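Run log // design_07
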């Protein structure tokens, strides 16, 4: 018995060493292939390839060690150990396969990048179309690496589940990206002129996204981008609501804001498939003709464009605006000196509202008159869209479906609606205080004996604004706030479809509850929501998906799982930053 134990311990030592190498390689691959920055420049792609090759070597070392391990060969006769050895060898092989899929994709992107640039605003549609095949192939290759962790013990089973989760996430992301690349030529006018309304959103006055205070119009024809008028939405007021039908749940929660008449309120809902259609109808009612597509960009998305084209000069702003300075310039500095009573549409207010439009006009002029690298532009926009800072809607069903699958359009319920949460803190006052507001989210998940989950969501709203002096940015407006710096927060939690939530109703395909709280300057307020998810544990897993609000500063999310009578693997406490959709998984066994 002692000899058997010694051999088993020796074998487990070799297993643990190989698993550690594979885990380190997986972390390297996630940080490299999953990071859009690695694709931006030739140097970045070359560095990414070196890291992928280093990870591949590490995996090969682990695989060789497993094949040559004497104790692992001996312990194949012991019950259960043969399964562990086979499982680990398979994990090593799959890890190497994932590395090679990433390597092939990097090489393909690098080859296309050398001849894929915009010239005078023209996107090379033929080169763009060539990108679809390698992206889709990489996604398909990764999808085939998703296997079962059944029969694998402890840390080895965890490593298999972590790899599978990474493979599934990466595969879905690549396949959805390939879908967008597939429809992109038609969206960009390969078959005829497309008219686009561009909503420019201000993150100092949040709805689910920033408030629409400025806009632009554009045409796309055979890949040529032509940006036309840029102005304040004061130029396109509506005397009556547009004819867009409002879903009953959306009407109950946000109907009082006038979402089909007031541009500032059109994106209070979390469903951009509705918002985009409403914007198209509103523009047609105010100015016409009805656009074929809608793009929505906020200040972080404009910062992404500035990282591509470089700093630009704007009349009335003393220094060139760069990607690093744009948030402070647009969301803070432009308000300095604007009096608290400037919200009535006077000349000062009209000039202020046009700043974002003027800046966007300067950026698009640079974009359409230079030769920026299309791969760099694409990766910057992809990163912006991951955080919800760039949204798209199309009147063509195939394009709209591709945008929704990729998270570029649609709402939080597009994927795994019965496991999805979405949290938004929206500005209920007539001020621009979201520049100072920092939400954070903490969830305590209590799993019952039956496998249901009781989720307590605490949204902490921290208001770092000064308490004066009164100004247009700080208020007060005399209606919703009476003191400068006070923030009226509409805190909305969307829980999973089919869940039960206090005062919850259907909205954006989920179950939404709204609490309205006042947060004084320099203070923080906690707002509690409770959600019950029946049968939350399914096939031995608890999965929760979190879709971010497109804020200037990304919120932190902490999830604590309590499960009496269950064995929980995956970390009882998980902390992530909601800069993109996060999918958290726990293995649950009795």
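design_07 sequence
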């Amino acid at each position: 018995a002692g000899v058997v134990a010694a051999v088993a311990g020796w074998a487990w030592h070799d297993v643990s060493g190989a698993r550690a190498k594979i885990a380190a390689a997986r972390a390297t691959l996630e940080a490299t292939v999953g990071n859009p920055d690695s694709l931006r420049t030739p140097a970045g792609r070359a560095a990414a390839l070196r890291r992928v090759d280093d990870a591949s070597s590490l995996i090969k070392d682990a695989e060789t060690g497993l094949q040559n391990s004497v104790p692992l060969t001996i312990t194949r006769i012991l019950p259960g150990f043969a399964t562990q050895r086979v499982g680990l060898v398979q994990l090593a092989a799959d890890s190497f396969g994932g590395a090679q899929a990433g390597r092939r994709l990097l090489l393909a992107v690098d080859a296309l990048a050398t001849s894929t640039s915009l010239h005078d605003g023209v996107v090379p549609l033929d080169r763009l179309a060539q990108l679809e095949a390698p992206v889709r192939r990489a996604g398909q290759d990764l999808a085939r690496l998703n296997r079962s962790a059944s029969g694998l013990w402890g840390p080895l089973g965890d490593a298999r589940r972590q790899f599978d989760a990474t493979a599934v996430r990466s595969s879905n992301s690549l396949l959805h990206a390939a879908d967008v690349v597939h429809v992109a030529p038609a969206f960009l006018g390969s078959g005829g002129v497309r008219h686009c309304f561009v909503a420019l959103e201000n993150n100092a006055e949040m709805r689910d996204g920033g408030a629409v205070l400025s806009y632009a119009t554009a045409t796309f024809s055979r890949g040529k981008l032509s940006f036309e008028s840029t102005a304040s939405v004061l130029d396109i007021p509506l005397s009556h609501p547009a004819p867009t039908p409002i879903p009953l749940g959306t009407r109950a929660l946000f109907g009082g804001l006038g979402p089909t008449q007031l541009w500032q309120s059109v994106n209070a809902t979390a469903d951009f498939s509705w918002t985009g259609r409403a914007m198209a109808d509103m523009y047609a009612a105010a100015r016409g003709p009805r656009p074929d597509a809608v793009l929505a960009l906020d200040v972080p998305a404009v910062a992404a464009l500035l990282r591509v084209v470089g700093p630009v000069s704007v009349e009335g702003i003393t220094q060139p605006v760069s990607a690093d300075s744009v948030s402070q310039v647009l969301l803070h500095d432009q308000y300095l000196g604007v009096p608290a009573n400037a919200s009535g549409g006077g000349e000062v207010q009209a000039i202020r509202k046009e700043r974002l439009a003027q800046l966007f006009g300067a950026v698009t002029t640079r974009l359409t008159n230079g030769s920026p690298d299309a791969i760099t532009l694409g990766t910057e926009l992809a990163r912006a869209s991951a955080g919800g800072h760039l949204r798209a809607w199309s009147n063509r069903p195939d394009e709209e479906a591709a945008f929704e699958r990729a998270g570029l359009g649609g709402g939080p319920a597009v994927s795994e609606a019965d496991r999805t949460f979405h949290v938004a803190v929206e500005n209920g006052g007539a001020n621009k205080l979201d520049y100072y507001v920092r939400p954070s989210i903490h969830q305590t998940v209590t799993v019952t004996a039956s496998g249901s989950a009781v989720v307590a969501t605490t949204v902490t709203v921290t208001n770092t604004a000064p308490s004066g002096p009164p100004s247009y940015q700080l208020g007060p407006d005399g209606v919703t706030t009476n003191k400068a710096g006070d923030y009226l927060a509409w805190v909305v939690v969307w829980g999973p479809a089919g869940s039960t939530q206090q005062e919850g109703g259907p909205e954006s395909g989920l179950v939404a509850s709204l609490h309205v709280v006042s947060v004084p300057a320099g203070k923080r307020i906690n707002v509690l929501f409770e959600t019950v998810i029946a049968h939350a544990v399914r096939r031995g897993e608890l999965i929760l998906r979190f879709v971010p609000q497109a804020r200037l500063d990304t919120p932190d999310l902490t999830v604590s799982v309590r499960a009496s009578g269950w064995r929980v693997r995956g970390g009882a406490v998980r902390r992530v930053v909601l800069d993109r959709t996060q999918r958290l998984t726990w293995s649950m066994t009795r």
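The chain is about 40% helix and 25% strand.
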